[in-house]
Amino acid sequence: MKKIKLVQQIVDGGVVAVLRADSAENVVRMAEQAIAGGIKIIEITMTVPFALQAIETLAKRYSSSDPSAENYAVIGSGTVLDPETARATILAGAEFVVAPCLNPETITLCNRYRVPVMPGVMTIQEIQTALELGADVVKLFPGNLYSPSMIKAIKGPLPQANVMPTGGVSLDNLGEWIKAGAVAVGIGSDLTNEAVKTGDYSTIAAKAAQYIAAYQESKQKQ
């Protein structure tokens, strides 16, 4: 049942912060600011040095058990290329796993431990395979190669697919993706670019608040 609850929390959250940094300490700071700004679904990418330490730190600090709690957040892992890495992140506290591509063994591993897994896909064939393997959500990646109309095209033959575009989603087009049928969106560099350039991490909280407001407005229009 926990897996079902987590998938629902990801969909309800609507916006996933995809965080990359040059150190575990900095990605933790990014996560803290994103959460403060209202984004409660946090993806720590495995390209971050000592990413497992960052996941463990955040998993101990935040809890997914009570969405009304002050310390509520769902911490997951991203850029997971293989089942070995997926298992390591789960042991570190990750509650969902995101991959840039479709790796059947990774999906099998996550299903074994009842952890939501969102593989990266680009084609109808990959989406169908992901669904057959048991993925609840597929990540359309890189999203900047497509327009929101891609979701309508996907849902023609595969109306049961839950699609989350990642890459290229911005404040300007978030509403179009939600209107097209995205169950959630992944936000990466647009959320953190200014903070990385200036060293002022509070800008992440401000940007996160803008994304949450844009998402909520888009949902209200549906």
UniProtKB/TrEMBL annotation:
Domain of life the protein comes from: Bacteria
GO molecular function ontology, one term from the record: lyase activity
Matching InterPro entries: Aldlse_KDPG_KHG, Aldolase_TIM
Recorded metabolic or biological pathway in which this protein acts: Carbohydrate acid metabolism
Assigned keywords, A-Z: Carbohydrate metabolism, Lyase
Family, per entry: Belongs to the KHG/KDPG aldolase family.
NCBIfam families in the record: eda, PRK06552.1
Subunit structure: Homotrimer.
The protein's name in its UniProt record: Bifunctional 2-keto-4-hydroxyglutarate aldolase/2-keto-3-deoxy-6-phosphogluconate aldolase
Organism name: Paenibacillus selenitireducens
